[in-house]
Write a structure and sequence with these properties.
Layout: E1 8-11, H1 18-29, E2 32-35, H2 36-49, H3 57-62, E3 69-71, E4 77-79, E5 82-83, H4 91-100, H5 104-120, E6 124-128, H6 131-135, E7 141-146, H7 149-162, H8 169-185, E8 198-201, H9 207-222
Parallel strand pairs: 1-6, 1-7, 2-6, 7-8
Antiparallel strand pairs: 3-4, 4-5
Helix pairs in contact: 1-9, 2-4, 7-8
């Protein structure tokens, strides 16, 4: 009998821990994690590196293709054979990615790739700000994670420190608040709690408590 596998979508604002949870779930179930945010960061990195105007959707979209991207087993990210795993976590890349994420053509290109991948390979985890209703609306399990901006800023600074990246708490907090506003008020695919999503406020949760809450819900779907 073939093992049952489900597709999982995780929504939520910047710095709430979507990527951490997605990675933990992927390892627990031996699923494949695709971070939509990483795709936008990769595109932003490429645009900045090549001095492409961030308001020029066509040029930005023409400057990359999925064949340029490789995600290794250890989650390292290569773009045109360059290891950019740490580089795309820089705050300037995140801010640029937020601008690029507003462009419909780029969103459609990324979403189509992810949707086709998820249909072909069950057991896929997607995170993003519209993962549950636009990227993977047919996901079997949907989550919306939330935490207050101050908690998320502290987490981001600690995460950067672990990766050897220097960051300032006040600057990160300001950036998170700006990005929240932009994500919730953008015309294309704004951040929202979609129908069928399980909302989890992680503000006072440890990483393990957050994982266990999601793990139990996934197990029920696998029964």
């Amino acid at each position: 009998m073939k093992e049952k596998r489900v597709n999982i979508a995780i929504d939520g604002p910047s710095g709430v821990g979507k990527t951490v949870m997605a990675n933990m779930i992927a390892k627990k179930f031996n699923y494949k994690f695709l971070s939509s945010g990483n795709f936008y960061r990769i595109i932003a990195y490429n645009a900045l590196k090549n001095n492409i105007d961030l308001t020029n959707e066509a040029l930005i979209n023409e400057a990359w293709k999925f064949e340029d991207i490789k995600i290794l087993d250890d989650d390292s990210i290569l773009f045109k054979n360059e290891d950019i795993t740490k580089k795309i976590r820089e705050d300037k890349i995140s801010r640029s990615a937020s601008i690029i994420a507003k462009f419909p053509l780029i969103r459609q290109k990324i979403n189509k790739f992810i949707q086709e991948y998820a249909k072909k390979f069950r057991g896929v985890i997607i995170d993003g700000r519209d993962a549950t209703y636009r990227i993977l609306p047919e996901a079997d399990v949907k989550f919306f994670l939330y935490a207050n901006p101050e908690v998320r800023a502290k987490r981001r600074v600690n995460q950067d420190k672990e990766m050897g990246i220097e960051s300032n708490y006040e600057e990160v907090l300001k950036s998170i608040k700006i990005r929240d506003y932009e994500d919730m008020n953008r015309a294309v695919d704004p951040l929202k709690v979609s129908e069928g999503s399980v909302m989890i406020d992680t503000s006072n949760m440890t990483v393990q408590e957050n994982f266990e809450a999601m793990y139990k819900i996934i197990l029920k779907e696998l029964e």
